[in-house]
Automatic annotation (TrEMBL):
Species of the source: Actinomadura rubrisoli
Name this polypeptide is given: DUF6879 domain-containing protein
Domain DUF6879: from-to ranges: 1-147
Pfam families in UniProt: DUF6879
Length: 149
């Protein structure tokens, strides 16, 4: 499970290129598609949930444009407008949850750049992460149905 809650991240060269050209095809998904494909062959599922403000930021618009790679890799991707998430208890940082046992939280700096990672295997934390994610997931819109204005 992967939870993303920010409306912007470090400026990537591909994002900057997209801003200039509108071309979303330059992002190389081959490594990710291979990684997810190999994991899926072992029975691993990948669910990604993006909680976004609306109207969406340029960064989220770019992420939406390149999300064909997430889908091609075999991820189940959903979008949750922040207006539908206001009453949920959510973690204070983006996260990955591995095997429903270990969470990796991505701590961002105030300027939006990548900070550090914090890990937790505390069963209480993991249970809360799962419960929060599942409630948000139920409200979220599948990628193929989520349209940007």
């Amino acid at each position: 499970m992967h939870l993303e809650m920010r409306d912007g991240y470090d400026e990537e060269p591909h994002f900057l290129q997209w801003q200039q050209t509108g071309d979303a095809t330059g992002y190389d998904w081959s490594r990710w598609i291979g990684l997810v494909g190999a994991a899926r062959e072992r029975g691993v599922t990948f669910r990604r949930l993006r909680i976004v403000s609306e109207p969406v930021s340029d960064y989220i618009r770019w992420e939406h444009a390149i999300s064909y790679g997430n889908v091609d890799a075999g991820e189940d991707l959903r979008w949750l407008p922040r207006s539908r998430a206001y009453d949920l208890t959510l973690p204070g940082a983006d996260l990955w949850l591995f095997d429903r046992r270990r969470a990796r939280f991505g701590i961002q700096r105030g300027d939006g750049s990548r900070g550090t990672y914090e890990f937790s295997s505390d069963p209480r934390v993991v249970r809360q992460v799962i419960a929060s994610f599942e409630m948000a997931w139920e409200r979220a819109i599948p990628h193929e149905e989520y349209k940007l204005d």
